Amino acid sequence: MNTVRTSGWVIALTPQDWRRWLLTDTPDSRRQAMAGRAYLGWVAFARNPLAMIGLIIIVALVAMAIFAPLLTAFSPVFGADAGAGERLLPPGGTHWLGTDEQSRDIWSRIVFGSRTSLLIIFMVAITAAPVGVVIGGTAGYVGGWLDTVLMRVTDAFLGFPKLVLALAFAAALGAGLENAILAIAITSWPPYARIARSETLTIRNTDYIAAARMSGASSIRILFGHILPMCLPSLIVRVTLDMAGIILIAAGLGFLGLGVAPPQPEWGSMVSDGRNQILEQWWVCTFPGVAIFVVSLGFNLIGDGLRDVLDPREQ
C-alpha cells in the first residue's frame, strides 16, 4: 500500500486508488496530469509485444554493462599464456563462446564491449540531437536568409551517406573512442534539424505562440520555452530509431580499424579480428555479429513502439 500527501493529509492508496488517481478527468495539479499521460503512454506501449521485446533486450544490455565484472571471470583485454593451449577454443566448457586468436574469452569481450556501445550511443545522442534541434528550430522560427543558410548546410551533410561521411571524419581525426564519437555525432545532427524545422514551421503561427508574443515573451523564450518542447515527441522517436544506426556505424568504424583502439573490446573490431577465420573458427566473428544484430533490433522495436505512442498521426 502506498501513500500520497493531499492538503497536509497523508492518505493511504491501494493500487486501484492509484489507477483512479492517474486516470481522473480532473487532475488537481500539473504533476498529476503529467503522471496520468505518462501512465496512459506506458499502457499503450506495453500492449505492443514487439516493443516489450525490444525493451527487454535494451534492459538486458544495460544490466550487462553495469554488472559486467560479475558476469565473467576472464579479462576482456588479456588472454591466457601462449603455452596454456587456449587459443581459438570452440564454444563450451569454461569458455562459453570460445576464445579468439589471442586466447581472450569472447563472452568477456562481448560483455565489456556493451559498455563501449552504450557510451557511444549516449554521447552521440546528447550531442547530435540538441545541436540539430537548436539549428532546425532557429532556422524555422527566424526564417529568411538564416533559414536558407542553415538548411543548405544541412542539405550538404544529408547529401552524403552517413557511414561514408563518418568514415571520412574518423580517418581525418584518427582512431580512438573519442574521435569515433565525434565523427558519428558530426554526421548525425542533420535529420534532427530537419524534423525540428518542420515542427517549428507548423507551430510558430499558432494562437498560443501569438498570445506569448503579445504578453511580451522574447523570441528566445518562445523558441526554447514553447516551440522546441513541442518537437520532443517526434525527436524522441527519431533518436531511438537512430540508435540502431549509431551501433552499426560504430561497428563499421571498428571493423575498419577507425573505432576503439585495441585491445579494448568493441563488437565491430571483434568481427574484424575473426573475419580471416570465419570458415574454420566461425565463433570468433559470429557471436559479436549476433550481439550487434540483437541490440540493433531491440532499439528498432522500441522506436516503433514509441512512434505508435507519441506520434499523433498514429492514434
How would you state the average pLDDT, rounded?
85
Helix count? 13
Helix content: 55-70%
How would the global form be characterised? flat
Largest sheet: 2 strands, antiparallel
- Element string (H = helix, E = strand): EEHHHHHHHHHHHHH
Strand order of the largest sheet: 1-2
- Structural class by helix and strand composition: mainly alpha
Write up what this structure looks like.
By secondary structure, this protein is mainly alpha-helical. The chain is 68% helix and 3% strand. It has 13 helices and two strands, in the order E-E-H-H-H-H-H-H-H-H-H-H-H-H-H. It has helices at 15-23, 30-46, 49-66, 68-71, 106-142, 144-158, 162-173, 177-203, 207-214, 219-227, 232-255, 267-273, 283-310, and strands spanning 2-6, 9-13. The chain has a two-stranded antiparallel ribbon with strand order 1-2. Helix 2 (30-46) crosses helix 13 and helix 3 crosses helix 5. The longest helix is centred in the middle third of the chain and has 37 residues, at 106-142.
